Amino acid sequence: MKRVHRNLIACLAGIVVIIFGWVAYDTYRGIGLCNEIAQGTAVDELPQLAIKHGVALHWLKSTAFDTTANNWVSFVPIGPTFGEFACEIHHDKKTVVSAKMSREP
Question: 2-103: which CATH architecture?
């Protein structure tokens, strides 16, 4: 019976390690994308950068007009943070005006 408990604990510990590793790696990819997007980057180049960093393309296609900044904005959520952290990309439909990490309150 002790052997079964030990194996069960080892399996559960392995699952926890895999989940934390996945969260860390997915977060790393999203932050890498945001750091690589510089002011002046062409909007047409964003899909290639997203593919390079393993980020889903549909986030780049969903944009909204920001009336306070007077430009377009896309939010790319960072991994499994459920949208709490995102790469906020402001652009004028041609070039990137700014890209920064943001946190939803």
Answer: 2-Layer Sandwich (3.30)
